[in-house]
Design a protein that fits this description.
The chain is mainly alpha-helical. The protein is about 90% helix and about 0% strand. Among the domains are: about 110 residues, Receptor-associated Protein; about 60 residues. Helix 4 runs antiparallel to helix 9 and helix 8 runs antiparallel to helix 9.
């Protein structure tokens, strides 16, 4: 009798443990399913938002493409795309033109809505018109500067490769693999063009058009002359490398000699802004007529334009071509 009671108690205990385990497992499964369902709902919401934003972007892209086709038929897009290529900017011509238009119109229009002042809005529109070309030109100059700094090392790689028995094509490929950007990107593009059947002369001329560098133009001219009349190309590369090093040294000396003039230009350019800031802090009412009256705003605009012209003239004076 005691044995049956013990067995029954064990069975009931095991059954209760089984029910407890099963219940907790089912509850965990329900929690997991509810969490998965909530995640699915969130993902669906994100997909819907992404789909809506994607539709907006696709609509804007269609408008930009239509705008680009209209301008491309008139020969406006191609020069802009060449500028983007020279500056290594990942923009199409119509995209750059759209950003240019927005930077010209939107800031000035918003300022006009806030201040209800047409002259200030017009001044900001003029500033916005010149900002994108300035940034593109700045990016192009930075690219050429980095390219020229890397060119000496690239010439050393080409010269050593030619002495080791590599062909000129293999030397270009080695530069495209070993050197950093931007010279790697440009040499890789040139190597691919030659590999796809473009003549070497045409590919090098395209490289010179993408990177407007006097040092690179010297190298291209030397390579093309060597292919016509022959000669030791490795020795030519070494001589050009020495010439570029001397040019870099002379450039550093000129920069040091003209440092005073450039600093004077910066100081002269910032003195009016500094004085305006001091007057606004010490006696704001003294300058209020410039901002409240139409004549004052006109004089302020003329002063800003004259300041910009003066800075440009000073920069031209201290810039030395060599």
């Amino acid at each position: 009798m005691n044995i049956f009671l013990i067995c029954a108690c064990c069975f009931l205990t095991a059954f209760c443990l089984f029910l407890a385990f099963t219940g907790s497992f089912v509850q965990d499964q329900k929690k997991v399913q509810s969490r998965m369902q909530s995640l699915k709902n969130v993902s669906k919401q994100k997909d819907n938002q992404a789909r809506e934003s994607g539709q907006i972007f696709r609509g804007a892209e269609k408008i930009i493409n239509l705008f680009g086709k209209i301008l491309e038929s008139r020969g406006i897009i191609k020069p802009l795309e060449e500028k983007m290529l020279k500056a290594s900017l990942p923009l199409r011509g119509e995209e750059y033109l759209t950003l240019w238009l927005l930077s010209t119109v939107v800031p000035g229009f918003l300022l006009f809505l806030v201040t209800r002042n047409f002259i200030l809005g017009l001044v900001l529109c003029i500033v916005g018109f010149f900002v994108p070309p300035f940034l593109v030109k700045r990016a192009e100059q930075q690219k050429v500067k980095k390219f020229n700094q890397q060119l000496v090392d690239a010439l050393s790689i080409i010269s050593n490769s030619l002495r080791a028995g590599y062909s000129f094509m293999q030397a270009i490929e080695l530069v495209s693999k070993e050197m950093p950007d931007p010279i790697r990107k440009e040499f890789r593009r040139t190597f691919r063009e030659i590999s796809l059947g473009t003549p070497l002369e045409e590919a090098l001329n395209k490289l010179g058009q993408r990177v407007e560098s006097d040092d690179l133009e010297l190298i291209i001219t030397a390579v093309l002359i060597q292919r016509q009349i022959g000669g030791n190309l490795a020795e030519i590369m070494d001589n050009i490398s020495d010439t570029i090093r001397d040019r870099i040294r002379i450039k550093g000396e000129i920069k040091a000699l003209t440092a005073q003039g450039r600093l004077s230009g910066i100081v002269i350019g910032f003195i009016p802004l500094f004085l305006i800031g001091i007057m606004l802090l010490l006696n704001p009412e003294y300058l209020l007529p410039l901002f409240k009256s139409s004549l004052g705003l006109l004089m302020l605009s003329i002063g800003i334009i004259g300041e910009i012209i003066g800075v440009i003239i000073i920069k031209k004076i201290v810039s030395i071509d060599y």
